[in-house]
Design goal:
The complex is a heterodimer of chains A (460) and B (552). Chain A is an alpha+beta fold and 460 residues long. Chain A has twelve helices and 14 strands. In chain A, the strands form four sheets. Chain A has a five-stranded mixed β-sheet with strand order 3-2-1-5-8, covered by helices on one side. In chain A, strand 6 and strand 7 (153-157) form a beta hairpin. In chain A, helix 1 runs antiparallel to helix 2 and helix 9 (364-376) packs across helix 12. The longest helix of chain A has 34 residues, at 13-46. The two termini of chain A are 37 Å apart. Chain B is mainly alpha-helical. Chain B has one domain (33-540): Cytochrome C Oxidase, Chain A, CATH 1.20.210. Helices cover 67% and strands 0% of the residues of chain B. Chain B is built from 16 helices and no strands. Chain B is globular and about 70 Å long. Chain B starts with 18 loop residues before the first helix and ends in a 7-residue tail after the last helix. Classes of the chains: A alpha+beta (460), B mainly alpha (552).
Chain lengths: 460, 552
């Protein structure tokens, strides 16, 4: 019965506290709910109609004192439980001032996470133990919920806004990561594992060469490695580049002389709005101000900023916000101090270790870029390498004969792959549903070529 | 004529010539008792259908892999189960079947205030049911019964519109019934039947009706807005269109939490009747039971946010909702304590309805106590959207509402049909349901605290033992539901003739014949006593008259 746990593992600083409250409630329930059936059983037997000896005279039909007792005592107990639970809840919802911030994007049906140094993961989350971690989460489509039972934490992840939660892992190990809010077809596969590592292991993991995939945004442009520096924080760095390339820096001048307010020291501060109210400039405020700038105008400025709704990926918004937060400069930001942020170089060189001996000829550099596009677009969520995804497995696909849903077959050559990317429904593989979106002109020719080279590189 | 072979008299009797006339006499009836029978048949049909869907879900969950059906089929299956059971069984079950039959009889009226509206409500129910069924037949719907946006409004590729149209229409059926009850209870009580002489079932039906009338329009609006966003792409809930996904949850739970009380309040009413009758004495704390129903009806409107503790609603909102949720536990506890006190110094018999009532008390206590767990935000964060929640609401809905529904059907069966059923099989069915139910749902509390999320088609290996236990319990439970179906139907053919008052009960419905005549009472009764007016020596006399061989 090794595989038959009755109690969940305790692997975060909350787990013990919540379990104590839980078991107290179980105890109280047994006291009340466990006693009551025995009282009922006793009365059932004692006063059964066949028991002629029982005294049935002097019946009582109401008793104010009794009513007050059995209303009052439970009331006092539940109020006690409420306050206990309320203080614990406030603690669980209030992150300490310095946390390690990790960005999470949920989408049907995978989790995508990005660490401050730019390292990305899919359906996994590596965290250090003994350090408070704060997840800043959003969804690209429907509502999801990020749930780590061993940590006793759960938070819905909504499209169009950030939600956050924090925890401090206490025990190294691997734990379940679930999506807890029903999100469609593959809801039950939307999960993976949380790996809690010692701080040293985590830092080593963060900079392990070949695993760091630089954020390159859905524009597909490769991001140059910061020249010869270990400045750290590539998320903020990429954000800064976006800030420049989108032209934000033209108005939001750091000296405050621009058309838009200076963003220096903005994050976490109290912002005076044009309508007279004040607002804390948190992630959601920053996000709203990018997507829908007219909603909350800073006092003293005109509503002239264009909306970026639909023009930026969730990834890019995260990067912009990471950059704006890095301008706060007082440590309220991402708290990467203590994390070595370098080591991002070398990622582009290592390329595709996935290439098997039997793989056809392909361009190493393009395939490596293709792998990033493949990850960033979320292709990896459906085209799983274990064949369990809702899309077909792509390993060994290139130049082999594939059966199609209409009964015909086709050689999976470059033309077929390109068509399947741009217009997936045209020729669907046998046994699969036409559910993949058409990427049409959303991808540049370069990106499609990179993807195809990557698919070529996938040996059996 | 074959159609009138059973039974002999009362409202069921027909002297109509020919089959078509007989069908018309049922389909166009305005007799509340016949409409109750129409509801009984159609609601039980939906119950069996929802049960069938649950069966497939439980079979799939025997193994951790998804082997019986694809994830899409599984999602459609649990959605079908939820939609059918909530909207087409639990909400109308007790009000529309027992309420329709009993409200006029219990208050000494000849019919409900608006008989035609009553018939119309049944047609609305059937019409809504046809929409929901056609959605299922045409490929199903995969949103879960909660229809959370923006999944339901933008992303789902299933028959969302048809299903919510069904639920929307069904809502009007509820409203029609509720309006009818409110008017009837206010205006048509027999002479002398003051508010505090009303049977507690009537108090419960009244409180339920108020909740239905006030809450149902809100879910109607919410579902309508989903349809508008889905059809015309108007941005209401989907942030991609400028909407707010949480708005839907607020609107939905503003109805759907009170809906929980729409399901359980009438059950409380039934249990009060059963406990008093089979203890042969006045119910303990009549006023407290009556007012606790009203307190639940009012507080029930102020706790919807406890479904949204992890939804990103504000911390302060969660604390307030948590606090009120704690308060609403008290009126439920008051009821249970008063029922228990009623047993004291009674003369208790273990007839089938009483066994269901006692089973109800055991299961509802567990359902209610685990509700407190969920009301404590810190614990809810861990267990919400897991099997803990699934187990909790099945303890309340199945352990509460269905136990009371079955208990009520057994109790009033002789009144409705004029026949007694087989008492031995009745006892067996109550026992099998109780055991099967606990086997099915108790393991799910453990599963939930372990972290098993709900609505999962495949799950990690370590949860399998508990899932197998739960599924085998479901098999026992299914048997428990099938047995009454058989012996109740058989009783129509060869059941003993019941007589007007087989249980020696006090309610007005027992003063008329079984089955009652079309106009209920030959003479409108005049009420001079409180409800459950058993004389003080009734219990002692009942025990003294008991002989070995009398019913236990």
């Amino acid at each position: 019965m090794r595989n038959f746990p009755l109690f969940p593992e305790q692997a975060s600083s909350f787990a013990g506290q919540i379990d104590v409250l839980y078991w107290t409630l179980v105890g109280l329930s047994l006291l009340f709910g466990g006693m009551l059936p025995f009282i009922i059983l006793f009365l059932m037997v004692r006063y059964h109609r066949s028991n002629k000896a029982a005294d049935r005279t002097n019946q009582v039909h109401s008793n104010l004192l009794l009513e007050a007792t059995w209303s009052g005592i439970p009331l006092l107990i539940v109020l006690g439980i409420f306050f206990w639970g309320a203080f614990l809840y406030v603690h669980v919802r209030t992150p300490p001032p310095r946390t390690l911030e990790i960005y999470v994007i949920g989408k049907q049906w995978m989790w995508h996470t990005q660490h401050p140094n730019g390292k990305r993961e899919n359906n996994e989350l590596h965290v250090p133990i003994g350090r408070p971690v704060r997840l800043i989460m959003t969804s690209q489509d429907v509502i999801h919920s990020f749930y780590i039972p061993a940590f006793r934490v759960k938070q819905d992840v909504l499209p169009g806004r950030y939600t956050s939660m924090w925890f401090e892992a206490t025990k190294a190990g691997e734990y379940h990561l679930f999506c807890a809010e029903y999100c469609g077809t593959e809801h039950s596969l939307m999960g993976g594992r949380v790996v809690a590592l010692s701080l040293a292991d985590y830092e080593r993991w963060l900079v392990t060469p070949g695993e760091v995939i630089l954020p390159d945004g859905s524009s597909g442009a490769a991001v140059p490695t910061p020249p010869g520096s270990a400045i750290g924080d590539p998320m903020a760095l990429v954000g800064e580049q976006l800030f420049t390339s989108l032209g934000c820096s033209g108005c939001h001048r750091m000296d405050g002389a621009g058309v838009g307010p200076s963003l220096q020291g903005l994050y976490g501060s109290q912002e005076q709005l044009a309508d007279g109210s004040t607002i804390t400039a948190d992630e959601n405020y920053l996000r709203t101000s990018i997507i829908n700038p007219g909603a909350q105008i800073t006092a003293g400025y005109q509503p002239v900023m264009p909306s970026y709704a639909g023009q930026l990926s969730e990834d890019q918004i995260n990067q912009l916000i990471a950059y704006i937060k890095s301008l706060a400069g007082d440590g309220a930001s991402s708290g990467t101090s203590g994390m070595s942020g370098g080591g991002s170089s070398g990622a582009s060189a290592t390329g595709s270790e996935a290439a098997g001996a039997a793989a056809p000829a392909f361009d190493q550099a393009l395939a490596a870029q293709g792998e990033r596009v493949f990850t960033n677009l979320g292709c990896v969520g459906c085209h799983r390498s274990d064949g369990a995804g809702i899309g077909p497995r792509l390993n060994g696909l290139y130049n082999t004969e594939q059966r199609l849903a209409d009964g015909s077959s086709v050689i999976a050559d470059v033309a077929y792959l390109e068509e399947s990317i741009r217009n997936a429904a045209a020729r669907v593989a046998e046994g699969y549903q036409p559910v993949m979106p058409a990427y049409g002109n959303q991808l540049s020719d370069d990106q499609v070529r990179q993807l195809i080279e990557y698919i070529k590189s996938l040996g059996e | 004529m074959a159609a009138t072979a059973f039974p002999e008299s009362g409202y069921l009797h027909d002297d109509t010539p020919g089959l078509w006339a007989w069908i018309k006499s049922w389909l166009f009836t305005v007799d509340h008792k016949r409409i109750a029978i129409l509801y009984l048949l159609s609601i039980n049909f939906f119950f069996l259908l929802g049960g069938l869907a649950a069966t497939f879900v439980r079979i799939e969950l025997v193994t951790p892999q998804g082997d019986l059906m694809s994830s899409d089929v599984y999602n459609r299956m649990f959605t079908l189960h939820g939609v059918i059971m909530v909207f087409f069984f639990l909400i109308p079950a007790i009000p529309s079947v027992l309420g329709n039959f009993l409200v006029p009889l219990m208050i000494g009226a000849r019919d409900l205030a608006f008989p035609r509206l009553n018939l119309f409500s049944w047609y609305l129910y059937m019409f809504g049911g046809i929409f929901a069924l056609s959605a299922a037949v045409l490929g199903g719907v995969d949103t879960g019964w909660t229809f959370y946006t923006p999944f339901s409004s933008t992303y789902s590729n299933s028959n969302v519109i048809l299903t919510i149209t069904g639920a929307f229409i069904m809502g009007f059926s509820s409203i029609a019934t509720a309006v009818n009850f409110i008017a009837t209870i206010h205006k048509m009580r027999a002479p002398g039947l003051t508010w505090f002489r009303l049977p507690l079932f009537i108090w419960a039906a009244y409180a339920t009706s108020l909740v239905i009338v006030l809450a149902t329009p809100v879910v109607g609006i919410a579902l309508l807005l989903v349809a508008i966003e889905r059809i015309w792409g108007v941005g209401i809930f989907d942030p991609a269109l400028g909407g707010d996904p949480l708005l839907f949850q607020h609107l939905f739970w503003f109805y759907s939490h009170p809906a929980v009380y729409i399901m359980i309040l009438p059950a409380f009413g039934v249990i009060s009747e059963l406990i008093a009758t089979f203890s042969r004495k006045r119910i303990f704390g009549y006023e407290f039971i009556a007012f606790s129903s009203m307190a639940i009806a009012i507080l029930g409107f102020l706790v919807w946010g406890h479904h949204m503790f992890v939804s990103s609603q504000s911390m302060y909102a969660s604390l307030v909702f948590s606090f009120i949720t704690m308060l609403i536990a008290i009126p439920s506890a008051i009821k249970v304590f008063n029922w228990t006190a009623t047993l004291y110094k009674g003369s208790i018999s273990y007839r089938t309805p009483m066994l269901y009532a006692l089973g109800f008390m055991g299961l509802f206590v567990i359902g209610g106590l685990t509700g407190i767990f969920l009301g404590v935000v810190a614990i809810d964060i861990h267990v919400t959207d897991t099997y803990f929640v699934v187990a909790h609401f099945h303890y309340v809905m199945v352990g509460g509402t269905i136990m009371a529904y079955l208990g009520g059907i057994h109790f009033w069966w002789p009144k409705m049909t004029g026949r007694m059923y087989n008492e031995v099989w009745g006892g067996i069915s109550a026992l099998v349901v109780f055991v099967g139910f606990n086997m099915t749902f108790f393991p799910q509390f453990v599963l939930g605290y372990l972290g098993m999320p709900r609505r999962y088609h495949v799950y990690p290996q370590e949860f399998q033992v508990l899932h197998v236990l739960s599924s085998s319990g479901a098999a026992v439970l299914a048997v428990g539901f099938i047995i009454p179906l058989i012996y109740l139907l058989l009783s129509l053919v060869n059941g003993r003739v019941a007589g007007d008052n087989p249980w020696d009960a006090t309610g007005l419905e027992w003063h008329t014949s079984s089955p009652p005549p079309t106009h209920n009472f030959e003479r409108i009764p005049v009420v001079t006593t409180e409800a459950y007016a058993y004389p003080p020596e009734a219990a002692a006399r009942d025990a003294a008259e008991w002989r070995p061989g009398s019913p236990l």
